[in-house]
Design brief:
- Helix content is 28%, strand content 25%.
- The protein is an alpha+beta fold.
- It has a single domain, classed as Heat Shock Protein 90.
- Helix 1 runs antiparallel to helix 2 and helix 2 packs antiparallel against helix 3.
- The radius of gyration is 21 Å and the shape is elongated.
């Protein structure tokens, strides 16, 4: 027996997912494909289940808006989904491949209306949301947070606080 130092093998390094994007055809079945695509990526990135469920719902709303209100839903149309993963935060963007601006009104719909509540849901559930412009065209985004320490609403205590 020896008292020598034995080198232990290093554990495999986990490369974290930071951002990803995909192009979806402008057909209604692509909304489910986009939800499934995002779900897999959020699972890889370790997004908590409740936050992931909310993200899938909000993605459905923005993708539906892309199909209904932009050129994405037209003949040969498409939309892009891009996800950014940060510590305790997720940002999802939906962009029309045809460069059509998205509507951004979160108005309260008629109680008897069958639709018109998508952006109201986004406004209610997202920590931040809105429209963005990029070199590849306009789109909509939402952000969700799940790390309570990352969502500090009050100033951090100072030394004066403890006197």
């Amino acid at each position: 027996m020896s008292n020598g130092i034995v080198r232990m093998p290093e554990p495999p390094r986990h490369v974290s997912l930071r951002r990803c994007s995909f192009r979806f055809s402008g057909r209604p079945h692509s909304i489910k494909a986009a939800r499934d695509w995002l779900s897999v990526r959020m699972d890889i990135a370790g997004v908590p289940e409740e936050t992931a469920d909310t993200a899938v719902l909000l993605l459905s709303e923005l993708a539906t808006n892309a199909l209904v209100h932009t050129a994405s839903g037209g003949e040969g149309g498409a939309f892009y989904v891009r996800a950014f993963f940060f510590h305790g935060r997720l940002r999802v963007e939906v962009r029309d491949a045809g460069r059509t601006p998205f509507p951004v009104e979160a108005a309260t719909p008629d109680p008897d209306a069958e639709n018109g509540r998508g952006l109201l849901l986004v406004d209610t559930l997202a920590h931040r949301w809105g429209r963005f412009e990029s070199g590849r065209g306009p789109g909509m985004f939402f952000e969700l947070r799940w790390n309570a320490q990352a969502i500090r609403t009050e100033p951090a205590p100072t030394a004066e606080s403890f006197r």
